[in-house]
Fold:
Amino acid sequence: MHTVDFWSMTFVFLLATFVGLDVIRNVSRLLHTPLMSLTNAISAIAVVGSIIIAGEQKTTFSTVLGTIAVAASVTNIVSGFLITDRMLKMFRQQGPGR
Amino acid sequence: MIDHLTQAAYLAAAALFIFSLRWMAHPKTARRGVAAGVAGMTAAVAGTLLHPEIESFFWIAIAIVIGTAIGVPLSRVALTAVPQRTALSHAFGGLAAGLVGTAKYAIWLPAGELTGFRTGAIALEVILGFLTFTGSLMAAGKLQEIIPTRPITYRGQNAVNLALLAIAVLAGVMLVIDPTKWFFFPVLVGLSLLFGVLLIIPIGGADMPTVISLLNSYAGLSAVAMGFVLENKVLIIAGALDGSSGLILSIIMCRAMNRSFTNVLFGAFGQVQAGAAGAAEKKPVKSVTAQDVAELLELAREVVIVPGYGLAVAQAQHRAFELYEQLTKRGIRCRFAIHPVAGRMPGHMNVLLAEANVPYDALAEMDDINPDLSQVDVAIVVGANDVVNPAARHDKSSPIYGMPIIDVDKCKTVIANKRTMNPGFAGIENELYTADNTLMLFGDAKAALGEVVKVLSGESGMGH
Structure:
């Protein structure tokens, strides 16, 4: 890792944190449970790193760890998005009829 | 060329993730947020699969099948079990980060490609990842009640925990100084796993909403550290979004309980206030029947229902909705007052009531509804206790002193539903029950609310 890369990544981290704090602060309190399952699914983007390790097959050890990591991340992606949508479907506004 | 495509896909994914969270601002746009998240994830995965470094797709495909097979049933759990599911997914996130860090170290070590930066980032990723893994498993176990939910404490606990963490960090520093001293690596992994367990052992059930939020934040930060190791910016962005979300939720939870982070993590003492449970003066309580409650409600213009987790335990959400319906039909304004820590995770009560068909515009935040309460004719407290205890406002000796509460005692009449007069789990006496304007409706929440609804629907001549 070069010095420049390290710093550019740190800047990205800083800016993304500010964006995150700002966006999350506006999330309706009604939706904090689905919010958590949604951010969970999103941070399972870790799957992209795991995929490369499982796929490049440098050593048996790294392939095994990579495969487990892909499985763990995919679990979070699948269950996270599905359950978020399932919960959000339940939120309905007051209106005539049910 | 392919590299540009991959990076463009990552850029699109980052933008879609930010939109996804933006659309969570309102229930009307929230489902669009999920769609954006799925689109972003698809773009990122597709961009990654183009990578020329991938030699074989065999194990990737197997892992995707396994992950889907576990993920689909996990998304169908009962809504009362959502906190456990969430803790479990923090555990998976931490595990993935820890394993990727370990694999990268194992790959780079013999290749002589370990720089100080890389090793430092790996050490951070592994510590955060593995402590989130075991810590979240412990939290999930406590929520599922496989592990005793009461705090387990012993002398010198905090000193032991902090010493372990310090040794783990020291092992990380040694690795950064000389990355080839590989024997520090298993030490780092082992201590992080152990630290995660020990961190959660002293935490009691009431603090679970905060702990889940905090673990959420750690899981996000471990993804950020992974981004630094792999030099992948979309990982850093997604991890930072997750981390800041967990942070905000933790702060909200701490404020709602009038506690600090350090107090939640290191302050297990004073959790079980055996206190003066028996010594409290016995003021008489006024007990009423479902018939009385129904008559009282018919005369009201504005009613507030205050649900606690006990409501969900008794499976009384649907009765609460029927009561809401009966009142609304009569032109009585009825709202639910939700305390931020009602339930086992942030926002849990809202989801439980939404499932029971309660429209979200009838769900009011504590801060929004408190100023209106003196205008409210009847407040019905179901399965909630500490969050309506007026002692939090004035009794400096009370363990919950300073905690923001829903001021139901300011309503004209309070109906409190409880099984018996035994003090609750926390063992704190609640003076609300003996207040002059409080009437007790004894019985199981589901049965008691059901009775009231039955009387109301009978009188309206609508039947069932």
Observations:
- Chain A has a mean pLDDT of 91.
- Helices of chain A lie at 3-25, 32-43, 47-56, 60-90.
